[in-house]
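This entry is passed on directly below:
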Amino acid sequence: MYLTLEETAEYLDIEISEVYRLVREKQIRTVSDGEDFLVNKQQFNLYLKSLETYKAEIQDYLNELPPEDIDIKDED
């Protein structure tokens, strides 16, 4: 499935200017239909999967409780 650049920005939840920058830097592959640039949606599968993994790892870290018995030596 192909998306326009505006739809790509919506799909990735980023600004349209960021999509234009990524296209200019050839980090997003595009095809042209003569009028518009189109982006293949499948190229973002790995990115979105790694983003979800990263979010889950951060949430696990934030939910982790500190140890109950912290052995801190007070030298006062």
Remarks:
- The helical segments are 5-12, 16-24, 45-63.
